[in-house]
Amino acid sequence: MGESVTLTWTDWQAVAVPLALAIGAVAVLLVDAFWRSATAQLRHTVVTLLTGAVILFGLVFVWAQRDDFKPAFCRPAVEGPAECSLVFEPMTAGLWAVLLIGGLGVVGLSAYRLLASDIPVGEYHFLLLSALSGATVLAGARDLATVVIGLEVVSLPSFAMVALRRDRRGSEGALKAFLVSVLSTAVMLFGISYLYGVTGSLYLTTIANRLAGLDPDLERVAFAAGLFVIVGFAFKIAAVPFHAWLPDTYVGAPVEVTAFLAVVSKSAGVAGLLVLVTTGIAPNGSDLRTVVAVLAAVTMTVGNLAALRQVEAVRLLAWSSIGQVGFLLAPLAVGDAQAVVGYLAAYVVVTLGAFGSVAVVQRHRPGGLLTDYRGMVRSEPGLAVALIFFLVVLAGLPPGLAGLFTKFAAFQAVIDAHLGWLAIVMAINVMIGLAVYLRWVAELFRLPADDPFSVDIESPAVAMISLCAATAAVLSVLPSTMFALAT
Amino acid sequence: MIATAWRVLGVGFSLLVVLTAGLLAGAEPGRSSFLNSSIDGLTLGFAVRTDDLTVLLLAVVGVVATCVQVYSLGYLHERPASYHALVALFTAAMVTVVVADSLFLLLIGWEVMGACSYLLIGHYWERRDARSGAVKAFLMTRLGDVGFLFGIFVLGVGAGTFRISELDPAELSSGVLTTGTLLLLVGVVGKSAQVPLQTWLPDAMPGPSPVSALIHAATMVAAGVFLIARLYDLFAASATTLTVLAIVASVTMLFAALCAMAAVEVKRVLAWSTVSQLAIMFAGLSLGTSDGRHAALFHLVTHAAFKGLLFLCAGVLLHQIGSAAFVVLRRYTRRGRLRKALPVTFATMTVGLAALAGVPGFAGFFSKDTVVEAAWHHAQDGSGLGWVVLVSVCLTAALTAFYCLRLWLWVFFRTPALAGGIGAFEDDDPMADLDEPDTSKLRDAPWVMLSPLVLLAIASVVLGYADGVHLNWVVGLVTTVLVLLGALPAYSLWSRGADPRPVVLEREFGVDPLYHRLFAVPARWLARLTVAGDRDVIGAYVRATGRTGTLVSQGFRRMQTGNVQTYLTAAVVGVVAIAVLAGVIGS
Amino acid sequence: MPLILPLLLAVLLFCIGVYGVLARRNAITLLMSFELMLNAVNLNLVAFDAWRLDGLATGQTLAVFVITLAAAEIGLGLAIVLLLFRGHGHVDADAARDLVEQDATEQRKGAAT
Amino acid sequence: MNAILLGILALPLLAALALWALPAAIGDRLAALYGSVVSGLVLAGSLILWPWNDGWFAYTPDERALRAATDVPWIPALGVRFHVAVDSISMPLIVLTALLVFLCCLYSLRITPRIGRTRSLIALLLVIEAGVIGTFSAMDLVLFFLCFEIVLIPMWLVIDIWGDEHDPAGRKRAATTFVLMTVLGSALMLLGFLLVYRQAGTFDIVRLTNAPVLGGHGIPLAAAILIAVGLAVKVPLWPLHIWLPDAHAKAPTVGSVLLAGVLLKLGTYGMIRILLPVLPDATVTIAPYLAGFSTVAIIAGSLACLAQTDVKRLIAYSSVGHMGFIGLGISTLSPAGLRGALFANIAHGIITGLLFFLAGAIKDRHDTSDLRAIGRALYARLPRIGALLTFACLASLGLPGLAGFWGEMLVLLGAYDPSDLLPRTTYLVLMVIAGLGTVLTAAYFLRLVRNLCQGDPAEHPATAFAVDLSRIELITWAPLVALTVLLGVWPGLLLHQWGNL
């Protein structure tokens, strides 16, 4: 019988951010629910500011503690180092920063006049903050129970957000995401149960230690269990072949929510998988890593190929995000946290920007076809240049150096791990990915357009897109900032 | 205005060359090098030298070029600016070859000449035969030049220098020497139109006649002879090369003379005669003796005079009548008009033909005899090569006399037997259905054209005595007899009005079609094959990649059915698949 | 009781759950199938806990978590199903196909109009 | 000094950004003038920077030859530094780039593609210039890769937007093929760089040159192959050349000029700068194959030219052959061959630039580049352009006395006497084949002159708008003609640069 777990000041510090987000979530809900007298604009603005403030607090907190190592909810282990449920360390800081920046971006995209008017503001922000809270927990989790809880706290609000508009499309999208996710949770839990069975612990470090000295008979069981856990996350991040729900859900949800799914939800999944792979179930040299590498190769290839002929902007982004996840999985498969976090950072920023731009266009042209963007470089030069920049970053070509260097880091990680075949697949996918994005860029440049897109863009959108572009530009010039997120 | 400037420049430049030759005559040999850069111990750069050979060639080039430039003032009316500029450039290139002491400088002149000849032969680019002749000239000489370049590599790398004056046969291994000189010989064969690269020269005849004169007399083809004379130490040190050269020369001189016997156009006869005469020079050089070299150079000089003269004469015919085909000329001759209307041309051409045929007293007689004599001496020294050369030169002398006389008689004289008929050339008369030509306006060319003729005609006689007359009477007698032996059949055939031309000779041994079939046709096929390969093999892969991408993409779109249970099924199947795959990896 | 029996039962339950998810069309049935799967997990956890004599009772604790989680999921699931029913008038999971990509030609037509 | 280098790197980029910031309404002429001034400044800067006689730093002690170096850490996490410097390997290419861009801008003062949008075109040209100069001065593998890629999207846009206006689908396809093949190649090249990094622990070219990755098999060989393939796409070496004819044929005149004159050199420069010094042993292993493919490129390119019916395609294919010579020169690993390759780089840039200018002029005047549609007897209709075309063709076929000769001659000399580590007999065979390739080269250029310039003018009457050489054309082409002659008669001008090679 171990000693009882007592909460210390360090524990509180480590969970401060998730806690603050959760409290913020409740506060937002309360404000929206009980302050009915204010005008919609005022209420919306206050809610936005409140949400933003909470997330900003989290960011500042992360920034202040970025170099610290703060384990929380620890107890001395039977063997080996202390077992902790949640750890704040530099990698966590990097992941939290990415998640929070993503959340902040989504809040910005959901500012007044941007968010569809039929979405209840309070619930929306409540769900957003809840999911963020879960995401941060997931990124810091060091035991499987916390992982499961964190994952669910991210997922369930996301589905609610997809369906928040309460229309046919939203409900269908939510249903698809929900069903696939629940199946994945069940599979993952099934795997966890076996993992627990063979190792007798849920703490990742302990599992890692015990896996090393496992009875060979049980090794197969442990491997299968680990596989199930990874497959659970593969659903979450929509790795092929567990991706099919993603395009439909992305198209069905409001664009802001899609941005949320693509940025926060997906990052959370990657963060969780990263934690699992690096600290727990897939130690260096494990066959599970090979499985992840295979998943990476298949995911990026299928994602990019499917994106090749899409004619709708959101669907193209959906498929391309699958491709991007493939690229993320590649350094993940070799346990290179730095490359993963860096990639995630660039991905989050430009995906936000891209969805922001798409949201602007979609609000005025609901069709959402790529042809709607024709000639925009002349009619809406600012927006077009920003969008082109985002796309080029996603493709990983100059001037989008942020994307180039994150891909570079991914290549480097893979090469250092002697996965030559994966590197070749990645190289081919760089080409396919470029083909995907160039089609869109070409539309933007095509002149003359019959009916060019030209509107008065809402100022919050301008601010958000400019911010994303500026951040991406800074990351391009100083790519080391991205990689400094997790050192 | 511009044309006038270029005319002045052209004539002036040629005169300058003559003047330079005059100034350099008797001066101390000198050398200097410039613009050098060194690569890996090899110096790559330019160098010039002046010595007797240089001066001799400069004089020849200068005089012929001056004659051609002056003659062209009257001859050429279309696009004179580019013409005169190119002739000047042509001359300059030859001068470069002559003064070069660096193999690369020599190569520059060598190939610029090729380019100039291409451009000048194609001067009448409206004409199909001029176009193809020009291309052919350039390509065949270029083919030889590749060998020439490789020869430079072999010798230069072997000797560690590209300076001609520093190439010492004693320091070169015999393998390098033989390979290098043989490769150089390839270039020479191409440039001087020897067998097997002989076909371009006759086809180059559509060019303006003065250009032909320049090419055949002083530049281009003479460069080959000059080159061997310049590198004579090297060539003489390699017995293999000399043997090859002798065989090439012997075959060429007979081949070309035979072709000339059946040609039915003045310029074509002359072109073949050039090939044949050059072969005589090469034969002299192939002896490997200083006598032989001297004989060859002597023949080069006299040949420059009479061949230049002959081509300029042919130019007059072309200029005044519009054609140099036998059949056209016969239309005038059968009325006896040609000789009377063009007295100066007739006279000078007679001199030229006599010199070419080796009629005693004319320059060609002496120079050819020197070659024969050198060969004779060499043969007496016990050289088989000498005998080969001797026999072939003697035979060629007879054949030369035949075609010269044939040309002279058929062009200028009525045939009593034909009683005013055109004769044996009627078959290929392009104007057979035309009316009789109006001969009344036919008159000799203006004096600006005739004066070079006269000058060269004088040279064609005088030059024979320039070297001092040391005639070997036996040799002289033998060659004279041979000339007579050659001339008699020509006369008797003419007087009977017959001109039997064996088909094989008329087709020039079928070499040209053979080359066409051997090289041009396969090249065209290969070209089509390459294009098709790019399009249907390499390009097909690229296109197929793109199409596969599109198809796969469409496939993925199809798989996106919208049915969530399909997705779930796919996912479960995916789990199983990954489990199986992992099992495979794990085991 | 040997460990193998509850494990076999759990596998059986899980497989029935998977079958239900794949074979049934009614969304409610699907939710029930998920319940089955999660309960299989619970069974596993408790069985392993008992087998291992885990002093921390980790397995049981996680089982409680899973029960809570399942409740939350079903709650949200039912809400979504209700929404689906409101929008579509039925609760067939495989009949909700609005979001499937239209055929390219149709889309072009749509863009033209 | 390093300020100048940084200046000529930054100036075009900033100027391009500034140009885009200007309103779209500014006149085409003004934009072109702006571009001319900027690129003129870059040209001036590059001329000031030209180091005389210092040679390649790989062959000089103490890195004396490296000039204008700037070396600051950039991304420490990845081991990437911002390290730029020039030596006499890169400097002539930089000057060539600056010159060609300058001439293109100057040309655009009067003659622009019919599609218009000159402002953007000029800006893209400036971006390309910055990228190319960056590639030529990068001393860090990652920076090299980066600059290598900078060029892609602008060039893609240039072809996609301003390309052949009669064939929108074709130009789109050409642009996409170009960009995708190059991106795949450069991604593979990046893999090679990363392998080098894994072996040597640095991306710095200077350090790698001083302490190369030795060993001719295993990882160094894999790295060398990957790098060579990546660069070969750009060169382009047969059979990776398939993007080239379309891209050149469909691109606008200035695009073709830059594509052929400058962009192709990135590949060969990379081979000389990276492959040889960094992976010396592995390069020896792959050199014979490289030489073989180069020779095939010479022959295949020339043969393909013989069957072309489009003047721009023909010139494009001729680049395949010429670049094959350069590849052969590099693969001899001998001083003569390398210098030949370097010289031919410059000469090809000048001559093919001129040829594409001429082809563009002919195309503009006839609204097609199809030889059959243009008709013959250009000498009669456009005598000056015809004469210039003939001149350029003669230069391009390697006529001694013009710039095209020396490079190819030195390449053949290098093949005659290759590095001692290489199989000489193989190279002798390749030399002979390449020599025959020069004859084929002559054949297709003469065929071009014959089919285009010569012919009976009566059959091909002049079109009404056919204006012979305009003043702006004269001004832009004159430097190229002059350089062709100057380098032809004085090759030492450049050869001196590589003194200690």
From TrEMBL, chain B:
Residues 100-380 form the NADH:quinone oxidoreductase/Mrp antiporter transmembrane domain. Its EC number is 1.6.5.-. It is found in: Endomembrane system; Membrane. The chain crosses the membrane at residues 53-76, 83-100, 106-125, 146-164, 170-190, 211-229, 235-257, 269-288, 308-329, 341-365, 385-405, 447-466, 472-494, 567-586. GO terms for cellular component: endomembrane system; membrane. Keywords: Membrane, Oxidoreductase, Transmembrane, Transmembrane helix. The keyword Phosphoprotein does not apply. Its main location: membrane. It is a multi-pass membrane protein. Residues 39-80 form the NADH-Ubiquinone oxidoreductase (complex I) chain 5 N-terminal domain. Coiled coil: none annotated. GO terms for biological process: ATP synthesis coupled electron transport; electron transport coupled proton transport. It is an enzyme of class 1 (oxidoreductase). This is NADH-quinone oxidoreductase subunit L. It comes from Kribbella turkmenica. The lineage of its organism: Bacteria, Bacillati, Actinomycetota, Actinomycetes, Propionibacteriales.
UniProtKB/TrEMBL annotation, chain C:
One of its GO terms (molecular function) is quinone binding. GO terms for cellular component: NADH dehydrogenase complex; plasma membrane. Its EC number is 7.1.1.-. GO terms for biological process: ATP synthesis coupled electron transport. The keyword Translocase applies. It is found in: Cell membrane; Membrane. It is a multi-pass membrane protein. Keywords: Cell membrane, Membrane, NAD, Oxidoreductase, Quinone, Translocase, Transmembrane, Transmembrane helix, Transport. InterPro entries: NADH_UbQ_OxRdtase_chain4L/K, NUOK/Mnh_C1-like. Signal peptide: none annotated. Its main location: membrane. The chain crosses the membrane at residues 62-85. Belongs to the complex I subunit 4L family. NDH-1 is composed of 14 different subunits. Subunits NuoA, H, J, K, L, M, N constitute the membrane sector of the complex. NDH-1 shuttles electrons from NADH, via FMN and iron-sulfur (Fe-S) centers, to quinones in the respiratory chain. The immediate electron acceptor for the enzyme in this species is believed to be a menaquinone. Couples the redox reaction to proton translocation (for every two electrons transferred, four hydrogen ions are translocated across the cytoplasmic membrane), and thus conserves the redox energy in a proton gradient. This is NADH-quinone oxidoreductase subunit K. The gene is nuoK.
TrEMBL record, chain D:
The keyword ATP-binding does not apply. It is found in: Endomembrane system; Membrane. One of its GO terms (biological process) is ATP synthesis coupled electron transport. Its main location: membrane. The chain crosses the membrane at residues 89-109, 121-137, 143-162, 174-197, 217-237, 257-280, 286-307, 314-336, 342-362, 382-406, 426-446, 474-493. It is a multi-pass membrane protein. This is NADH-quinone oxidoreductase subunit M. The lineage of its organism: Bacteria, Bacillati, Actinomycetota, Actinomycetes, Propionibacteriales.
